[in-house]
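Quick question about two entries, pasted in order.
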Amino acid sequence: MRTKAATNKAQAGDPLAKAEEMKFLPAKHDKQAEIIDAFIRVIEGLYAHLPLKRAMYGIDPVQQLRRLKQRLDPLGGGAFHRELADIIRSLRDAHTVYVGPKDLAGQVARLPFLIEAYEEEGKPKYMVSKVVEGLVSDPQFTEGVELDWWNGVPIATAIDARARNELGGRPDSGRARAVESLTFRSLRYEPPPDEHWVVVGYRTRPKKGPSQEREVRIPWTVITPEEGPEAISPASAAAAALAVNPVAADVRRAKKLMFNPTLWRQEVDASKAKVAVDANGNVRGRFSDNVSAKIRPTQSGVFGHLRLWGFDLADDDGFLDEVIEILDQLPQEGLVIDLRTNPGGLIWAAERLLQLFTPERVEPCRFSLLATDATRELAKVRQNEAILGPWLASLTSALETGELYSQALPITPPELCNNIGQVYSGPVVAVVDATTYSAGDLFAAGFVDNRIGTMVTVGEATGAGGANVWSAETLAALTVGSPIEFRLLPDGAGFTVSIRRATRVGASAGLPIEDIGVGGHHRYSLTRDDLIHSNKDLFQYCGQLLAASPRTAMKVTAANGSLSISTTDLSSVDVYADAHPIGGSIAVTDSSPTSLPLPSFEEALEVRGFKGSVLKQRRAIRA
């Protein structure tokens, strides 16, 4: 476990000027040309969203890169890196970014407070929802004060100005990222603050008496929150199945260090942790950086709250096992799955999780590559056979058919999306917002498209990141020794790129997620009470939705040669051994369990529960 003194030091950080000394080195002319050539090769040959971005924003990044290469002589190192970063940022794709030198890895510029938006009388307001004690000189600057000014600019104007340069396809997602970046910037992936301190104009909101208008000057500092304990290595097999916003992933870690230092301090020993309830009623285990849970009493009943913080983990089997164990400790009357601010991570983990909440078969999202010579050759590389082999035939036929993209195929094998099955009985509500991104987008799309439950969006939709993302390290590892080998960039620079675009299934089959996102069944605007009192109004709203949802339940146990089936509001069950039906439908009642001789099976015994002719519950017992 990290010590409290070490945690306090990590929170305090270093002056911004120290990080500025480690900005991009002034690359020499030949290295600058090498970097540009690599980006032209990646954007023109591999970038999955190139046709979309050209059409949507009227840009030509490949031509811009060629023009930059022509103007290298008069450009210094700093100007070169800024212009290159601006070209890549013009794609407005948080998956595709220019990555700074390794010396900046994990470094986040931060102010010691958090800003969140809420709505009052139809207008947006901006409130300080968290402050780190002892790091702001003004004792009146506390949680609950409202912001009016930012460096002398009205706060709404300052946010709109930042939103124009943020990596968000929709205006609301750009504003959501702008609010976050007012106080947190990942230095390896985005420009550092121009100013070394900010002057914040704020208003107190006391329970009694008039409010006061005040001003405080707060310096930027740089912290290094380190990767999570389950972080994925760029050289691992899982690295080719990522969908993550790297900026948001760094910021999420920084927020944990600043505002939940006890958990940050404890996570060194997380690999040994067992699922348990802590003193605050939170259910956590080994994957505490990715998932936690709590029981939430509301006026409509007592429900479970499953918080999915992120999918940055390599062991999806272990993750699912832990979620199943957590769900067993929550009320079965209804569940809120909260994916707000989830930056994504491992696609397998996000999509496989869906099966735990539905009796129906889950269909994962589909992914396709841009049909180019580069993607075709990439799919031919021997070490990529398992990763890209299924796409090779359609990439090859595109030469004759003129198709823009390959065939759309799943990254997560459908059999793995259904190899566990339903474990949670009650109705489910998912909550997302404009910062739910990448694998978070994919979970949301699967939740809606597979008709698992009701989805509530705080704002218009999810963050709209629809792609599988590879880093420069992953691309280099998967092409080493091949005719199309990609080498790491000089001066410690790098990139991430959207290499396979995601499209939806079900009633929305074929629709892209990028720059559109996933809309919910209901929209919700956060209130001031939500920010002050742990989402009080939001959970009341979700509780009403859960209470109004029809509820069935089924519990299946096998012991001592007998199969016991307890049900709620079901009319019949069917039993299958290794996918073969055992007898006919069996009528059931709520009053007493149904007992049957335990059928023999080699792989799986499955019980399906029906209300009338509609499948409502399904449980599987594996051999």
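Here is the second entry:
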Amino acid sequence: MMNMKKMFFLIGIILVLLLMLSPLAVYAETPKFTTTEYTPPHTKPGPAAETLIYKSVAVDVAPAALEAGEIDAYLFGLRSAVAAELIGKPGISMMSAPSGLYSIVLNPAPAPAGQLNPLSIPEVRVALQYIVNRDYITKEIFKGFAAPMVTFLSAYDPDYITIFDIVKRYDFRYDLEYAKRLVTDAMTKTGAVMREGKWYYGDRPINLKFIIRIEDERRPIGDAIATDLERLGFEVERLYHPFGVAIEKVYLTDPKDFEWQLYTEGWGKGAPEKYDSSTINQMCAPWFGYMPGWQDPAYWNYINDEIDDLGKKISLSEFQDLETRNKLYREATELCIHDSIRLWVATRLDAYILNPNLKGITNDVGTGLRGTWNMREAWIPGKDTLVFGHLWVWTETTTWNWIGGFQDVYSVDVRKATYDSPVYRHPFTGLPMPFRASYTVETAGPFGKLIVPEGTYTWDAKEDKWISVAGKEATSKITWDLSKYFNSKWHHGQPITIADVLFFLASQIENTYDEDKSAMESAIAETVKVTLDKFVGIRILDEKTVETYVNYWHFDPNYIAEFGSPLGVDYSLYYSETPPWELMAAMNELVFTKKQAAYGQTTAEKLGIPWLSVVLRDHAEMIKNVLEEFTQKGYFPENYFKLGDKVYATKDQALARYRAAVSWFNEHGNMQISNGPYYLNKFDSAAQYAELKAFRDPTYPFKPGDWYYGEPEMVEVIDVRVSDVTAGDEVVFTAELSGPGTLGAKYLIVNPATGQVLEVGEAEKISPTTFRIKLSKGFTWEIGPGTYDLVVGAYSDQVAFVSEAIESFSVLKREVAPATVTVTKSVVETTSIVSTVTTMPVEVIGIFAVILIVAVALTAILSRRMKKST
């Protein structure tokens, strides 16, 4: 019988292989591979259920609430210990997804004269990587419901394979003594001294303010790290705070004011992303607005021009192919690790609980139960109302506005049922795909240019009008069929028209390039400008079709479409939703003319005005009052709708829209007027309650079943055939696979006694399902006699799952090397930032194996732009 160490080693190697799989092939047509049947409850336009209710339920009482029938599902991951106890319990179904991320953000601001902030020293920040006991955290705190992280991606992110070897080089093992040596070297160079086990700078002990969240596992994580910081010689002031207080202290204060120096961050994944451009920028690049200082010009800001340059190139696809893109990505990752502004801790395998009778559920690889598909398709036979529990429905920093709000999962998770994005990410592959709009892409990129035709316009923020850009150059053109919008209505009954598109685009440009407006909302404008600089113009072809022109290219044309969308994309950081134009006009008036509210969080804090949220009654009433002023004045912003000699809206239409929006407020008390399958009927922040009603207008284009994906069809390794070989001889192994789409296979040759990965390669395809692995004469001679493992991982271009198989083979002794053998170094080495390691300890691999085993035990459906605060 195989001993436990051997078993852990083998399963651990499987996980290693998973991390090494190459990127999936380009997405084509919306593949739907399901292993479960789904029969929609009806064929009416709109969603499956009639009513969705969201209410706040404390995480510790969520299972009891589900068993009592008070909720039908819980959208926040359970505590790991609780989840482990619920596995297999009757009356509770569970699904899992790697949708929660945990990091420690450090404040690197320089201290005032005569003081020292040790976190401003890069060597100290790197040293702290070695006091994050990731193995303890994932095994003991998360009870195996997590996987260790050393950078911003984990094994469950598609782009992890791009940086796999980099991650292996930085072996941030837990090593307190080594961290002490690094800290001592760095601190003594600054003039700090150690007295009786504590660091002093001058006559003052060095104190670190550590804000630790209290709602989940971040409290014990923070305590563990704080204890080791004290062992390093620092005084630690542990500040225990809930979500709202922590967010305000960390993200709404100037780092140089030192309200905080460390914070236990939590992130909820948004839509999955096949070729990442958002996460690497969000977590590493200052320009994106998520690094200390938060791009507020009034604050001290962390600066790293090199990462910014690389990050912008990745975000703007300034590369010529996948290879050059990956090179940029790897360089940025290395710099991010070296600066260590964030210490990454773990990806949590969030365990979501739900009523076993709940139907229509898709397991999104990024968001799990929280995926946009599930609010549209979920239903329970015999019930027309579904109740979703969440940790919060509203907090002090939960803000609903389409320009600078939706920065936490609590607002996003409710909003996504009310809005239809033009494009979305496929729930299994992570590639962009058509959602409510369809498109075709024509590109001359990466090196060529298209000539922009007559009838193409862009907004001029100085002249406040649309101007022709005919004759200019653009890299790509996207032709959009918007008929599923323009044949339908907004929730307040007004038709969706091209006027909404034009006002949305003009407002983005105006708010970004107008000197006064961009100065007021600088944090938003500076970030948006980087991508908006690539917009060339829009051309209206007919009443349903438009073209957009952009100076942007990507090797996958779906990314070009996503970039050039004329409407708000749900998972964008800013301008994530296109509202009825009259609402944006009223909000612009409220923000930029009256200055009674702000779009962005930092502006609101700086000016002492509300961060505009359309679901708070007093905020929505301000918008209503502006609309009433518009009505009284007969206001009609014709310049926003006039392209050449044609005007795409009328004053009568504007007045009808103002009246409809005011009536909406009078009935519902909010201004979340959108276009999705549900409308927001009630929102009560004090009661932590939101109620959504089905939008059954006959013009709504979707019905139940249109967005159900279920579970992806699995890839399987059917058979692996190996044979023994004499050292110095060539040998060929074969693997037989099954599964959807185009299949591929990676392989590892491993020494099971030491954990060394001796060779990594891509198996040769000899038929659609058969693959060949050839080991050369030189390789078998070099590794020498012994027993080795062949690990085969199978993957598909249409699902993000991997199937593994392990077979052992022997290399037999040969006394003399054959004359034709050329011996070359083949052992795969891993190096850390401070040392060289030539083997992977079996115990470490075993830890990964335990994590994998627990994840599989949770559910057979565990899968492998933008994270939101939790």
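Reply: The chain has 25 helices and 38 strands. Residues 141 and 220 are 7 Å apart (CA to CA). Hope that helps.
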